[in-house]
Structures are given as structure tokens and as C-alpha cells.
Design goal:
Blueprint (H helix, E strand, L loop, with lengths): L9 H13 L4 H20 L26 H13 L5 H10 L3 H5 L6 E2 L4 E3 L3 E5 L3 E5 L9 E3 L2 H19 L21 H15 L8 H12 L4 H8 L4 H8 L3 H24 L15
Antiparallel strand pairs: 1-2, 2-5, 3-4
Helix pairs in contact: 3-7, 4-6, 4-8, 9-10
């Protein structure tokens, strides 16, 4: 279809969208096409060539969001227990990922200079990335908001202390010199390749008898555990360092229903317990609670 800009209408754009969807064009690709068209039309408006944007209100169905695989608490415990049992060198890395929700590259780029175990904080200042699938470089984190601090639980602190002891033991034997200052590194102090972490993660998961998931899914596992435990979504968003709160809602909003159900169930349980206590109170005995009168 060919139309002059001033003759382009919303109906034309809508018909184009329906035609493309019927032809099998993916919603994500189509949304990008319409976004590009909308930007071009906005530019034409700024140049006084058009008075309206025919693509501005075009509705495109959202792509189906696949359910994110996630371990249960029991499977998570079984995996970590097996890692400690075989004393795998990456045990502490996986535990820190689960306890903090960090991205894999952020953890692999973490330096001891950015960790304060006394204050139970770490600062995300680097991320390890593979350039051309071969050369490892330290880059800035994914978004400006990602360059932030993360609080550490006592469990995460314990894992980091074990990692430090492991490095000191290696240094004493003269097999390594961690001059780069990386928290998680190879025995000789060099960065760990991300694909090496993934391969070992798959091997350990299979040996531990838990479902195969991605290393990045440990970030989703951390979020799921927090939300299921009743942590407010705003705090989950801060911990994961999402660029916007809406990102957290979009990814994990469905999980808040589970947390909300747990909250109202807790309220009902408290009321029922109070009623049982009241039934056991002798008649005529008043409660010390304040009575509000209209």
C-alpha cells in the first residue's frame, strides 16, 4: 500500500497490522515496525508536514509471555546442599546469585574493593561480558540504575567469607595470585568465562536431581522467594535494581496475588485465633482493648 503522508489514517495503519498478523508476522517485530512509523510521523508533525500521528493509538496484541521456570524452595536447598557436599568452587557464586538477585555478569565482575562485609553491602560497578564470544571485558552495568548498592544477608556474607578463605588457601599453596581483585575467579585469578559457569551449573543441577534452568533464572528465583515471603514489590524492584518500577510489575506482578493471598490468610488466622481466645474468656470479663463508640 502506498499513501501520501497527509492521507494516511488510523484505519490504514490498523489494516496493515491486521494483514501482517494474519500473514504470520510476530507481534514483537510488528510493534517495532509501528514504533518506527510513529517516530517518523512525529518528526513530520514537528516539521509542520502533518497535524496528527496516524500510528499513535494503534493496538497490537501483546506477545505471549512464557512462564519463567523456577525452582521450589526445596529444590533450591537440594541444589545448594549438593554443591557444598562436592565442594564445588562455584558454590559460593550460585549462593550469592540466589541471595542477592544479581545478574551473572555483575557477580563475575564483582571486585573485593566493592564489597563491605562489615556493613553487609556490595556495590555493583562492573559487569563481565564476552565480546565476540571470546574476549572477556569488564563493562559498565546494564542500566544506570544497575550501578547501585545491594544489601547482603548473613547467608550471603557467609558465602563471601567462604569464597575469601578459598582464595587465601589457593594463594598459600602458591597456585594463584588474585591481583585483579575479583571475588569470583579462576584459581590463577583470571575471570571465569560465563559459558563455563553455565556448563557447570547444568552439570550440578543434573547431579543434584533438580530441573534444568538457566543461571539467569536464579535472579527470578530470588524475586519469587522475596515476593512469596511478603516483601513489598517496591523493595523487590529496588533490590533487583530495575530501571523502573513498572518493569518489576510487568515481570512479577502475577506473583503478588500469591503474596496477597498469604496476607489475607494470615489476617483470617489471627482473627480466628482471637475468637477462640474470646470463647474461652469467662462471661462478664472485659477486654482491655479500647472501644470506639460512634
Amino acid at each position: 500500500m502506498r499513501f501520501r503522508l497527509e492521507r494516511l489514517t488510523h484505519q490504514h495503519v490498523d489494516r496493515f497490522v491486521r494483514t501482517q498478523l494474519a500473514a504470520g508476522r510476530g507481534p514483537v517485530t510488528l510493534r517495532r515496525c509501528i514504533a518506527t512509523l510513529s517516530n517518523a510521523l512525529n518528526d513530520a508533525i514537528r516539521q509542520r508536514r502533518l497535524t496528527h500521528n496516524a500510528a499513535r493509538y494503534t493496538a497490537i496484541p501483546l506477545p505471549h509471555r512464557a512462564e519463567r521456570p523456577c525452582w521450589t524452595i526445596e529444590e533450591t536447598v537440594a541444589f545448594l546442599r549438593y554443591c557444598r557436599q562436592v565442594d564445588d568452587p562455584l558454590t559460593e557464586l550460585f549462593e550469592v546469585l540466589i541471595c542477592t538477585g544479581m545478574r551473572k555478569g555483575e557477580a563475575l565482575g564483582l571486585h573485593w574493593a566493592d564489597v563491605d562485609l562489615q556493613a553487609r553491602l556490595l556495590f555493583v560497578r562492573h559487569t563481565l561480558v564476552a565480546v565476540d564470544n571470546s574476549r572477556l571485558v569488564l563493562s559498565t552495568p546494564k542500566t544506570p540504575g544497575s550501578r547501585d548498592w545491594i544489601a547482603l544477608s548473613s547467608r550471603a556474607v557467609a558465602a563471601l567469607r567462604r569464597c575469601a578463605r578459598r582464595q587465601r588457601a589457593t594463594a598459600i599453596t602458591g597456585r594463584a595470585s588474585n591481583d585483579r581483585g575479583l571475588v569470583f575467579c579462576r584459581p590463577e585469578g583470571q575471570p571465569i568465562r560465563p559459558e563455563r559457569v553455565l556448563r557447570r551449573f547444568y552439570e550440578l543441577a543434573e547431579a543434584a536431581g533438580v530441573p534444568r534452568i538457566r543461571v539467569h533464572d536464579l535472579r527470578h528465583l530470588a524475586a519469587t522467594i522475596m515476593i512469596a515471603s511478603g516483601v513489598p514489590l517496591a523493595m523487590v524492584s529496588k533490590t533487583l535494581r530495575h530501571s523502573t518500577f513498572s518493569t518489576t510489575v510487568d515481570i512479577y506482578g502475577h506473583l503478588t496475588r500469591q503474596a496477597a493471598q498469604g496476607a489475607v490468610d494470615a489476617t483470617a488466622t489471627a482473627l480466628e485465633a482471637a475468637e477462640r481466645t474470646a470463647r474461652g474468656t469467662p462471661p462478664g470479663r472485659r477486654s482491655h482493648a479500647t472501644i470506639l463508640r460512634p
